[in-house]
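[#protein-structures] MJ: dropping histidine kinase here for a structure pass
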Amino acid sequence: MAEILSDAPSGRFRSIRTKLALLVAAAIGLAAAVSTALAIVHTVQLAVSSEQSVLMNTARVFAAAVSKGVQAGDQAAIYEALAGIRKFEGAGDQIEFVGVEDLDGRPLADLGSAPRLMRDARVEPGFASDLWSILSSRTLQASAPVGEPGYPPVARLIVIKTSDGLLEAVRTTLLVSVVSGLVALALGLLAASRLQRAITRPVVDLAATMARVRDGHDFRVAAKAAANDEVGQLVGSFNAMIAGIRERDVQLALHRERLEQDVSDRTRDLNLAKIAAENANAAKSDFLATMSHEIRTPMNGMLVMAELLTAGDLPARQRRYAEVIARSGQSLLAIINDILDFSKVEAGKMDIERIPVDPAETADTVLSLFWERAQKKGLDLAAQVAPDTPAHILADPVRLNQVIGNLVNNALKFTESGHVLLSIGRDPHDPSRLRFAVTDTGIGIPEDKIAGLFSAFTQVDQSTTRKFGGTGLGLAICKRLVEAMGGAMRVTSDVGRGSTFAFSIPVEGAATRTLARVPLVRGRAPRAIVAVRGEATARVVADLLAACGYAVERREADALAGAGLPECELLFAEGAVLAQGLAGTRPARVVALTTLGDGSERRLEARGLADAILARPLAHADLALLSEGLALGAGLAVSRPDRGGRERALPQFTGCRVLVADDSAVNREVAVEALARLGVQADVAADGREAIAAAERGGIHLILMDGSMPEIDGFEAARRIREAEGREGRARLPILALTAHVVGSAADLWRTAGMDGVLHKPFTIAALAESLSGFLEPAGQGAVAPQRHGASTQEPDPPSPAEGEGSATLLDQETFGELEAMAGADGGAFLRRVAGLYLEHAPRALAQLEASLGGDAADQARAAHALKSMSFNIGAAAVAGAAGACEAKARENQDSVSQEEAQELRLLLDATLEALRSRVFSAGGQEAA
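AK: finished. C-alpha cells for histidine kinase:
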C-alpha cells in the first residue's frame, strides 16, 4: 500500500482499516470514560448521603446516652455510654473514635485511638465538603449537641468513622464501568471489522488496480464493480477513465503510424505551394516589368511631343489642349509610379541610400514644387525649420522628398482654406531623431478611420476617392519608406479642423546649425512687427525673428495700410501693403514679402520702400541670409520673385553628337526632336548591332541606348562596346540606358551591362538635359523649358497706379502689350475675342460676389478669386488688386466683404470695362458681347 500511494504526503503509512479501528476504539473508549465518570460521581453522592445519615444518627444516639452523665458530672457513666458504641449495629466496627468535650472544646471523656485530623471530612449539617475532599479523606467526622431537649446544650459529642465503605463502593462502580467499556469496545471492533469488508475492501482493490496501471502502463485492466453506492460510482468513473485512455492510446498509435506519411505529404504540399508562390511572384514581377515597359514606351512619345507642342508657336486654344494632354500624362505616370513603387516595397526590393542630405534644402524643394498649386487654391504654404535642425543628415534624398511631397500633396488636396505647414526639428521625445510633420487645416479624419489610412488601395471613404481622386497607395508607400528609414508614421486629426502627419528618423553625428542673434538696443531686445498674410507664413517669420533675439509682435497685414506704426527696429510686412506707403517714421529695417503677380516688387524697388524683398514661398536659404544680415547689421540681400513663372533656360550642347538607339521609330523621332531643342546633333540606330557599328566608327559623344531591341538588345550591345573598348584601348564612350523598365529583373540590367546611367521613359526635356549635363559640356543657354502646367496659369504683375493716367492706371501696359503682340497678323481678332469674354464674364463674377454678401465667406472668396484671375489675364490690374484684397479678407480672415468694398470694386470694374472697350474696340467697330 505504501507503494500504491507513493505520491501521498510523506510520513508513516496508515491504512483505512487501521484508521477505522482506531476511530471506533476512540469513540467507544471516550463513551466508556464519560459514563464511568458519571457513574462514580453518582455513586459517591449516594454513598456520602448514606454515610452522613448513618453517622449523624449514631452521633445523636450517643449524645442522648451521655447526656445524664455529662449533666451529673459522672465520668464513669460517660465512659460506660461511650463503650456501647462498639456494640452499635451497623457502625460499631467502623467507629474509631468517640469523645465528649464541653462547649469550650475541653475533653470530658473519649474512647478510641484515631487522631483527629484537620483534613477529616465533616459530614454534619452546616459543613459543605466537596466530593474530592470526601474521597481523599481517610475518615469522616460528625458531631451532635449534648443536653436536655428544649434546653441549651452543655457539651458536644464527636464521632470519627473510617471511609472504607465509601471507597469500596467507588471501586466497585469503577470496576463495573471498565468491564462494561471493554465489552462495548469488543462489540464495536467486531462491528467495524464487518463494516471494513463492505467499505474498505473495494477501495483497497481500486488502489491496487491503479498501482498495476501505474507500474505496468497496462490500461486493459478494470476494477471490480462494487455496491451501488459512492464507492461503486468511484470504481465506475475509474473504469470509464481507463477506457478513455485506452481509446486515446489506440488513436495515438494509429496517428504515429500515419505521422511520417502525413509529414511527407505536407512537406511535399508545402514545397509545391512555395514553388507556386515563387512562380506567381516571378510572374507578377515579369508582368509589372512588361506592363511598365509597354505603357511607358508610348507614353514617352506622348509626353515629350506634348511638351514640345506647348513650347511651340500655337494658338491659345490648341496650346491649352496640349497642356491638358501633358498634365493628364503626368497624372497617369504618377499613378503608374505609385503602383510600381508599392510593388517594389512589397517585394522587398526598395533600396534606401544613406548620403548627406540638408533638411532645410529638402523643405525648400518641396515648397517650390507645390507653391503654384497652393496659390491656385488660395492656401498659405510654408515650411518651418527649427534652429536646432542639423545642417546635414544621412538619408535617402529621393525617398525623403517622396514621403514629404506625398504628405504635402495630400494636405493640399484635402484643404480648402487656411494653410499647410511643414515643420522640421528635433523630436521632443527623442532628441537623437529628426521629426518631420505636415499640418493642415483641412477636412480632418475620423478617429475610427485613422487605423486604415496606411492600407493599400484605401481611402477614408469612397466619396473621398470620387471627390479628390488618388489610388490610395501614397500613404501605404510613405509608411513603408519611413519604416525602411528607421522611423514610424504618426497621425493626429480633428474632424473639420485639420490633421498632422508626422514621422521621425534617426540622425547620427549631425552637427546643429547656429543661428546668429541680433544685438540689444539700449539694453533691451529689439522690437519687430510681423504683418503678413497667411497664418503659417506669419508663424514661421515670427518664430525665426524671436530665435534671432527680437521681441516680436504680430499684426494683421491690411491693418498697416494708412495707419501710423509704433516704434520698432524691424518691420516684416506684405509688399502690396508697403507699396501703398505707410504713415509715420520708417523703421530701421523693412522687409517686404511679395506674391508672384501682385506687382508690388517693382514699386518697392523703385521707391526704395524696403531693405529686402522676399518672395513666397519663403525659402529657408533666404531666411538664413536675412537673419545673418540682421545680426551683422549689414545690408540685406534683395530676393526678387521669379518673373518667368518657373521657366528656366535649357542648356545647349552645340557641337555634340548623340546616338539614339531604339527599335521604335516613334521613340527615335521623339528623342531626336528633344535633342534638337538642346542643340544636339542626333544619329539613330534601329537595333543593337547598328549601335555597336556606330560606336566603332566613332565621332559620337554619347549613346542613348534602349534596353529592349531585336537582334542584339541594348544591354548586350553595351557589353560588347565595353569589351571592344578594353580590347582596342579606345576611350570610354558614355552610354545612358533609355528604358521604360523600372521594376523587375530588367530594371537594374544597365548597371551590370557597363552603362553609365539611366533615363527612364517617359522623360522630360529638362530631365534629358540634366542627364546629358553629367557627361557633356554645355555650350550656353538657349530655349526656355516649357512650363509643366502651362503659361496660361500665370498671372501678370499689375503696375502701380502712379505709373500712368486714365486707362493706363486701370490696364497693365506690359500684359496688354503681350496680348496685342499675340494677336499679330490676325488683325486683332484674338485680342477682341479675349476682351469680349472678359466683358461678358467679369460682371457675372462681380454679381456673384454681391449676391453672396452677408453670407458664406467661402462663396465670397471664390467669386473674388474668379474675378481676380480673369482680371490678371486680361491685364485689368486695378480690378485684380481690389478683388485680391476682397478674396484675402474673406478667405484668410473669414470676414464678410462689406457693401462699401463691393461698391468700390464695381466702380473700378465699370471704369475698366469702359477703358477696355476704348482700347480694343474702335469707335466704329464691334460692340462687346
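MJ: nice. The longest strand covers residues 430-440.
AK: one more thing. The radius of gyration is 60 Å.
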